[in-house]
Specification:
Number of strands: 10
CATH superfamily of the largest domain: ABC transporter type 1, transmembrane domain
Radius of gyration: 35 Å
Shape: elongated
Low-confidence stretches: none
CATH architecture of the largest domain: Up-down Bundle
CATH class of the largest domain: Mainly Alpha
Oligomer: single chain
Distance between the termini: 75 Å
Number of helices: 21
CATH topology of the largest domain: ABC transporter transmembrane region fold
Number of domains: 3
Strand order of the largest sheet: 6-7-8-3-9-10
Helix content: 55-70%
Mean pLDDT: 77
Structural class: alpha/beta
Length: about 600
């Protein structure tokens, strides 16, 4: 009936939740005390039915009539005070546990290597942090409360019924094992259905993330109806899984109700027979019946708990898969030199698909750049230019070869220090839904507003920023939709100016700029041809560009073709060579 392997796996998931509970053990103890009082008073309610029937309705005692109603009110008053305390403490424990898990999951996601993040859809990660954690929250709150409170209540009521009539209690309780088998089977189905539901929820979140962020593309191609149809298909799948779960939950309660009804019928028959033939008092009978009816509710609650527990275990399994992911390799311990005088890439090989080492995306890359020099990487789309730029901050790790600062392999440096030493402007222009000042300051702490303004001026962004409603305090809409592509790009360049790191990597950093803006940015970056007084003048600069107007100022240009360096030299030297670079230049001039 029970699969030992599955039980062991379930227990391992539940066991991993324990460390999150222990910091709040004092609140948990208070909740248990409150539950114990509530359970004891529930048993007392069943027990006082006996004197209620015998002393008032049978012997017609005025003393009993005065005392018992007062006692009932007192029991209910005290019971509900402790019920509130139980609800508060268990809710506090549950919310704190979920907050800790949510924080850990987000931290784990943020610390995942870029190579791993690229393989997990954003929507799936969002579903883990929101939907899955909400399920665990419900499971923890329901389970901890139900298991403790219901088990305590069942224990007290069992003691009451066994004390009242041992043989009648055994006869009735013999029916309870009948519940176990079907409830267990329904629980297994609930877990599988919950897993399928969570997968489908991840698919919907992924779909929404993709389509809503690309609605302009959808509208420009008149694909609204197609996307609505695709969403309806996903929504229908999710509906079917939810309905399957609803059916499972719906079957559990009626089955337990049926067993409860049979139990009451048995009590009425056997108890009534004892009253009629063997002198069993009506008080004893109704007290026993009340205890059994009160016992039924926590038993039903525990049966519902099985489905909730299975959903929580399925969600917990997926959450812990994220927590078990290996974070970025931060094994380096060497501090980055205060002054970086050289960047060298030697014999570098890299492949995105590690299972196909014979087809490298980058092959035998050798690049040298000294402080004060500007190196550029040019080539057709797909040649591997951006890949080179992402290996330097260690977003990816090379399969072979080395990347060195001052002759030291960058793997030996502390990862945080390495990235602090690099100002990286990506071709993916994305701004945070925060103020412009926040976006420029991002990655640069303790900067004054004057320094922010100066960086914006160097990036030729100050004038358009001041034309916005709140200037530097203007909040950028999600994905920077209120700004043009060139304006967003200038904010990113301003961020690089403000960070002012010794190594500068510009990956298509001026691709969205018009000719005049690009010329201004180039002057800010490179200075004049006679005087290298721009941002790159005292740095190691690596420029990745498809537009050759950006790279012609470079001291050396490396031309990539199918992941290999096919040519290298200055702008003039490469034109004279009449090779790939000149051909690329002529095509751009057409």
């Amino acid at each position: 009936m029970f699969n030992k392997k599955n039980i062991k796996k379930d227990l391992s998931v539940l066991k991993r939740l324990l460390p999150y509970i222990l910091p709040y053990k004092k609140r948990l103890i208070m909740a248990v005390i409150s539950m114990a009082v509530v359970s004891a008073l529930t048993g007392a309610l069943a027990y006082i039915v006996k004197p209620l029937i015998n002393n008032i309705f049978v012997t017609k005692s005025y003393t009993g009539l005065m005392m018992i109603p007062f006692l009932v009110i007192l029991i209910f008053l005290v019971k509900n005070i402790f019920y509130y305390a139980e609800f508060y403490y268990i809710g506090s424990v549950g919310q704190n546990i979920i907050r800790s898990i949510r924080d850990e999951v987000y931290s784990a996601v943020v610390k995942l290597p870029v190579s791993r993040l690229n393989k997990i859809p954003t929507g799936v990660l969002i579903a883990r942090i929101t939907y899955d954690i909400n399920i665990i929250q419900r499971t923890v709150s329901d389970s901890v409360s139900a298991v403790m409170k219901d088990v305590l209540t069942i224990t007290v009521l069992l003691a009451v019924v066994i004390y009242m009539d041992f043989y009648l209690a055994i006869a009735v309780l013999a029916l309870f094992p009948v519940v176990i088998l079907p409830v267990t089977k329904l629980g297994k189905k609930a877990r599988k259905t919950s897993t399928d539901t969570q997968t489908e929820m991840g698919n919907i979140t992924k779909f929404l993330d993709e389509t809503i962020s690309n609605l302009r593309t959808v509208k420009s191609y008149n694909m609204e109806e197609l996307e609505i149809g695709r969403f309806k298909k996903l929504s229908d799948n999710l509906y079917r899984f939810f309905m399957r779960m609803t059916k499972i939950r719906g079957l559990t309660v009626p089955f337990v109700e049926l067993i409860g009804g049979v139990s009451v019928a048995v009590i009425i028959f056997i108890g009534g027979l004892q009253v009629i033939k063997f002198g069993y008092t009506p008080g004893n009978f109704f007290s026993f019946l009340t205890a059994m009816l009160l016992l039924y509710e926590p038993v039903k609650s525990l049966s519902r708990l099985n489905n909730s527990l299975q959903e929580g275990i399925a969600a917990g399994t997926r959450i812990f898969e994220i927590l078990d992911e290996k974070p970025e390799d931060e094994s380096g311990t060497t501090p980055v030199p205060n002054e970086i005088t050289s960047l060298e890439i030697s014999g570098l090989y890299f492949n995105y698909d590690k299972g196909k080492d014979e087809n490298y995306d980058l092959k035998n890359i050798n690049i040298k750049v000294k402080k004060g020099q500007i190196a550029a990487i040019a080539g057709y789309s797909g040649a591997g230019k951006t890949t080179v730029s992402m290996l330097i901050p260690r977003f990816y790790e090379p399969d072979d070869g080395e990347i060195k600062f001052n002759g030291i392999n960058i793997k030996k440096f502390r990862l945080k220090d390495l990235r602090d030493a690099i100002s990286y402007v990506s071709q993916n222009v994305v701004l945070f839904n925060e103020s412009i000042r926040f976006n420029i300051e991002y990655g640069s702490s303790n900067k004054s507003i004057d320094e922010v303004v100066n960086a914006a001026k160097l990036a030729f962004a100050h004038n358009f920023i001041m034309s916005l409603p709140d200037g530097y305090d203007t909040v950028v809409d999600e994905s920077g939709l209120r700004l043009s592509g060139g304006e967003k790009q200038r904010i990113l360049i301003a961020r690089a100016f403000l960070k002012n790191s010794p190594v500068l990597i510009l990956d298509e950093a001026t691709s969205s700029l018009d000719g005049e803006s690009e010329k201004q940015i180039q002057n800010a970056l490179f200075g004049s041809e006679e005087n290298r007084n721009g941002l790159c003048g005292n740095k190691i600069a690596l420029i990745i560009a498809h537009k050759l107007s950006t790279v012609k100022h470079a001291d050396i240009i490396y031309v990539l073709e199918k992941g290999e360096i096919a040519e290298s030299g200055t702008h003039e030297e490469l034109i004279k060579r009449n090779g790939i670079y000149k051909n690329l230049l002529l095509k751009q001039m057409e």
